[in-house]
Amino acid sequence: MDNDLQTVQISEGIYWVGAIDWNLRDFHGYETPKGGSYNTYLIIDEKITLIDTVKAPFFEEMLGRISQIVDPSKIDYIVSNHVEMDHSSSLPAMMEASPKAKLVCSAKGKKGLYEHYREMGFEKWDIQVVKTGDEISIGKKTMQFIEVVMLHWPDSMHTYLKEDRILFSNDAFGQHIATSERFEDQVEGVMEDAQIYYANILMPFGKQVLGYAEKVKQMGLKFDMIVPAHGVIWRKEPERIIESYVKWANAETKPQVLIVYDTMWNSTEIMAKEILEGVQSAGVDVKLRNLRNNDWSKITTELMDASVVAIGSPTLNNGMFFTVAGFLSYIKGLRPKNKKFFVFGSYGWGGGAVKGVEKELIESGFEISEPGLQVNFRPFEEDRAKCREIGKRLASLAKE
Ligand code: FEO
Question: Does the C-beta of 86 come closer than 6 Å to ligand 1?
């Protein structure tokens, strides 16, 4: 075991003992160009407690960090705030290393852990199921639990350390970044990374976010730190991240047009650029994103802010281009709100892309605010002029 692994004391008796995934570039399909981390915390009190575990390939690293501070066999409680495997896949090995530990989780967490680990020792685990408001005293410190159903899984739970006013929020309020620093005020641009994370993971759960903010207020919780399981810790006015989540959950948009497209022989790209010219000439902020050379995780974040979205697809084999189909499938699941859509594209014979994209958008519950435009083979000046005119109309829609 590596004895040089660093731990970080984040507060009196509370240590970060997780792992940094410097080379993570894809988190179940969502691009993570800055890497990621799996944060776990060791609390030293009369009862020794571990909050969450790491993704399985990082188990030895976490165990090494824990061992710098305490013999893992002395751990009394392991809290599993969330079943997803980036936080639980080293739980079977951790339960072996801490044979006297009681596992603490929600009722849905217990069911989820059974479904993952019933052939990996689950039956032997001593499990204590907790619900919102339940408390466990570990000595000078008290853990209080808050179920956060569908933030973002049914089993999700937060652990609040009452005396220290520290919230262990697991996935909520996280960011996918790899850094040697552990606090938000030590790193540039964390709020932007938090928004990318929100857009790609939590966007469908705005209603639950608003319910959570209300519940926290009713419970009268105050925070000195909000400590997610991914990225860095919010310690400077930590409520800022809850306020940002409320703003994002309310789906507030800006007067912005986002043009998302793909192209085969540049015809759809020419249309996209003419639409951009039209929007710009009307003095409205506009972004142009080709699906084949931009991170979809970033496009999705820009989609949150935009009030108008133009989607361009050439026709390939009587239908929409495959990247456009993939993107529509991606955003259908994320359910962005308060958007007006417009569809455009080129075709050779038969067509199909524009109608196909419009049908998909309507079936997904999105609003189309401008009839689609398709151009045969190449956009000539008459078509280009139409695109610029449409750009001006989209600019007006964005300002409404
Ligand atoms: Fe970080 Fe839902 O897992």
Answer: yes
Residue corresponding to tokens 């000195």 = 224
Residues 29-65 pLDDT 10s: 889 999 999 999 999 999 999 999 999 999 999 999 9
Would the CB of 235 count as within 6 Å of ligand 1? no
Measure the CA–CA gap between 295 and 55, rounded to whole angstroms: 24
Concatenated DSSP letters of 317-338: TTEE-HHHHHHHHHHHHH---S
Residue 157, helix vs strand vs coil: strand
Q: Percent of the chain at pLDDT above 90? A: 97
DSSP code of 114? H
Q: DSSP character for 186?
A: G
- Pocket lining: 34 vs ligand 1, CB cutoff 6 Å: no
Closest-CA residue, ligand 1 atom 3, reads 84
Task: Indicate the pTM of the whole model.
Answer: 0.94
Measure Cα distances from 229 to 152, 168, 249, 299, 355 in Å. Answer: 13, 8, 21, 24, 43
What was the pLDDT predicted at 162?
Answer: 97
Of all protein residues, whose CA lies closest to atom 1 belonging to ligand 1? 171
Which atom of ligand 1 sits closest to the CA of residue 229? 1
Joined together, the tokens standing for residue 56 give 């399985």
Rounded-to-integer distance, Cα 190 and Cα 70, Å: 32
Report how far ligand 1's centroid is from the alpha carbon of 183 (Å): 20
Tokens (6 digits) for 86: 């980036």
**For domain 257-399, is the CATH number 3.50.50.60?**
no
Ligand 1 and 21: CB distance under 6 A: no
Domain with CATH 3.40.50.360 in the chain: 257-399
**Residues classed as catalytic:** 28, 82, 84, 86, 152, 171, 197, 230
pLDDT single digits (tens) 229-275: 999 999 999 999 999 999 999 999 999 999 999 999 999 999 999 99
Domain boundaries for CATH 3.60.15.10 within the chain: 8-249
Domain 8-249 has CATH 3.60.15.10: yes
Whether 171 is in the pocket of ligand 1, judged by its Cβ within 6 Å, is yes
Q: Which is the closest atom of ligand 1 to the Cα of 38?
A: 1
Residues in the chain: 400
**297-317: average pLDDT:** 96
> What pLDDT was estimated at residue 232?
98
